[in-house]
Amino acid sequence: MKIDILTLFPAMFEGILNESIIKRAMEANKVEIHRINFREYSTLNNHQVDDTPYGGGSGMVLRCEPLVSAIEDVKRKDSKVILMTPQGKTYTEEDAQRLSSEKHLILVCGHYEGFDERIREFCDEEISIGDYVLTGGEIPAMVLVDSIVRLLPGVIKKESYENDSFTNHLLDYPTYTKPYDFRGLKVPDVLVSGDHKKIDEWRERARIENTKKKRKDLYVDKE
Ligand code: SAH
Asked: Quick one: angle between helices 138-149 and 20-27, nearest 10?
């Protein structure tokens, strides 16, 4: 998979692209990730990318021309262009799974007051990471990169994510590690019994109980 991130602040991605699982996935050629500063596509003096809104009002609005030129420059036949916006569809694990089978993602990060409405015409999909407003689309783009790349074949073991929360509309089961007794809080006996059939049954029940307790909405969805 190839991911192109169109952003005015490429340095914001240093952390996520240079640490841990995403870095290893890039080194192993499981994914190719490029940051493109669309300021370079501006044809105005001093590479201006924004301007005041028609009709007046506060804040600066991203102009169509640099962003659309950048999209058109990197776009291929099989690309999916995703606009990061609080007005988009709320992102879920299902979207991460769906997008993980795409060949080429182009993530468009807005900034300032937002972008010229006409930019929407040049994108295939609009995604929000939740009902709150951030200063830019960079953190939302990082959320997509992280959640998608971990699902790519060979990045992490399938067993590591097949029971993860939100898979099959359930949350994950509770997990424990050493010590057995932490300040009087003990690990459930079944997990130290060595009986793998019982452990599997306990985990399956625990996923259901966990979901009913913490996220009834997910469990009801399943009915
Ligand atoms: N005035 C706009 C918000 C602008 S925030 C509005 O109310 O709709 C600036 C940029 O940050 C947006 O263009 C978008 O790219 C990004 N952004 C902010 N919150 C976001 C969210 N919840 N999900 C995805 N992108 C978001």
From this structure: 70
